[in-house]
Amino acid sequence: MELVDxxxxxxxxxxxxxxxxxxxxxxxxxxxxxxxxxxxxLGGGSESKLxxxxxxxxxxxxxxxxxxxxxxxxxxxEFREPIPLTTVSTYLCRLADRAVLQRVxxxxxxxxxxxxxxxxxxxxxxxxx
Length: 129
Description:
This protein folds into 2 domains: 1-46, no CATH class; 48-129, Arc Repressor Mutant, subunit A (Orthogonal Bundle), CATH 1.10.10.10. Helix 2 crosses helix 3 (68-79). The strands form 3 sheets. A two-stranded antiparallel ribbon has the order 1-2. The protein has a two-stranded antiparallel ribbon with strand order 3-4. It has 4 helices and 6 strands. The protein is 40% helix and 14% strand. The longest helix has 14 residues, at 21-34. By secondary structure, it is of the alpha+beta class.
């Protein structure tokens, strides 16, 4: 399988052995992290896990700070599906890198986030005119 991002960078993934549902879901997570889009063929819904996580953040935490664990619990309550804490943390970090979220603190358990306000639109990751 090959994943290609907007700039043309390519990642090739090769599986050897048996593919389980868990491995396929991990592959879908990798594709989402890399910026690929499977249109729900592997993940089940048409909206990516990252998009659903951002929706939960905006719905449950529009103001104030939250942690990865807060988002994990809200995501699982909203969608009634498991998601690893490491995946939540990675997605939140990626959203902070894109200036969709603001990140405060460092170290294990001390990192907090909040929705960025002002110059960026968190839903569409585009500058507001």
